[in-house]
Amino acid sequence: MSSKLIRGTFILTLGTYISKILGLFYVIPFYALVGEQGVALYQYGYVPYTIFLSIGSAGIPLSVSKFVSKYNALGEYAVGRKLFQSGLAFMFVSGFFSFLALYMLAPMFAEIIIADEDQLSTVSDVVAVIRAVSFALIVVPFMSLIRGFFQGHQSMGPSAVSQVIEQIVRITFLLIGVFVVLQILDGTVVEAVQLATFAAFVGAIGSLGVLIWYWYKRKPYLDNLLKEDKGTIDISIKEIFKEIFVSAVPFVIVGAATMLFQFVDILTFNRAMADIGRANVAEQYFSTLNFKAHKIVIIPVSLATAFSLTLVPLITAAYVNRNWIHLKKQLNQTFQVLLFLTLPASVGIALLSEPIYTFFYGYDPTGFGPNILAKYAPVAVLFALFSVTAAILQGLNEQKFTIFSLLFGLFLKLILNIPLIKLFETEGAIIATAIGYTCAIVVNLLVIRHYAQYRYRLVFRRSILIFLFNAAMFIAVYLFYQFTALFLSTESRIQSMIMILLSALVGVIVYFYLSVKSKLLYFLFPDQRKKIEHRISQNK
User: Fold this and answer.
1) Which domain holds residue 199?
2) Could you list the residue ranges that cross the membrane (predicted)?
3) Contact 394, 250 (CB under 8 A)
4) Which of 196, 202, 207, 513 would you call most buried, defined as having the most Cβ atoms within 10 angstroms of its Cβ?
5) Does residue 325 lie in a domain region?
């Protein structure tokens, strides 16, 4: 069973990473086609949609998976099938009402977002984009339940494959559609972005088709399980959904955290900029922060997401069994590995912000884009820490504090965003996000300290070492980067890519060498120690 679980986790993680990589690199041609106004409009529509989607279905796959797995283990296969049959109807209805809500609320959101006539986009433009993306809400919650049902049977392939197909179909439709509208039909940017957001619905249909195919392929096996059903548990539909939604709420909260912070920017950024007479550049600055920089900065956070998926059952098992030694060891390793991986990634993005920005979006002669990327990069560590501390609280069965900490962080973001934007413009929004996340993380850490009887002394000492190694890596990469700048130019996309690859290689070598020499790598990855030592000895 353990090998099956490892294989399933690997398949699901691989599917998630492929989806994220596809979701990252399509921005290069997309931005080239629609420009600053286009990506700002895209965010205006996509962030409210994602929040509605998170509320409607973000926690469903995992909570349904836990429910089905639980009753399958008891030999009560009919309970899971009962959930599946009634759940499909419920999710279709809830998805349809979510669609109607977002569709009808679009004018209200648009009135808040567009604060001044000097902005490039109008209220009607934003309404059109939000309404175009809202159609996806009809399908996605329905699709999420099917994924959860398969995962509950330890079948991760359907979820992984459907995720990848969804991204491929969405991105293909998006790029071809935008190109046709702008280059062949001579349409407007607004029409192109409408089609781009509607691609979420098309991608969901493609994913649903894959899941239906898997259902018919595996239905004989699932029907045979029903014949082995013990039939000793009679649970009502009401009790089923109560158990599902109570379990789903924490995952919804954590899954929507980043988007909720972005949503605060959507509601306040343009208004604050208009108040200081900067409405004419508000959309350009907004798109740089909330779309272009965010797409890059979120890359290291994927590591934290992977941790979150595997962390909950390990910590839950140690906590339930009151195995405090194992629990503390698990927490020590988790925090250290998280910092060990995400800190150098964010430092690297900040240091190489200019060539990275050029590679993705083209050369920015004003330097504004690279500057925002450099200042936003350290926030990646906060995103990752919140994600992991929230997962730990879930494992400790103290998820109510996750909700409190996030709401506290959002409240600080909300009250600080406008005054800080008025003082520091785009940097003010970054500062408000950093303050909100930092305070939420502090709350989570204090709760973990209390309920897990955990002290952070070892993590603090190792963190100092990790920071020193990052400082050494920074100096080495900075000197090498300045050297390459004598021969290569950040005005060229290809030369920027070469600078990124060479500088990253230097950073990895320095960081890896210091980690091996200090034996820090062996402490953080004890299971990989023999493999690392064997490879080093082979290369001597």
Assistant:
1) 1-248
2) 12-34, 46-68, 88-106, 126-146, 167-185, 197-216, 244-264, 296-321, 333-353, 373-396, 403-424, 430-452, 464-488, 494-514
3) yes
4) 196
5) no
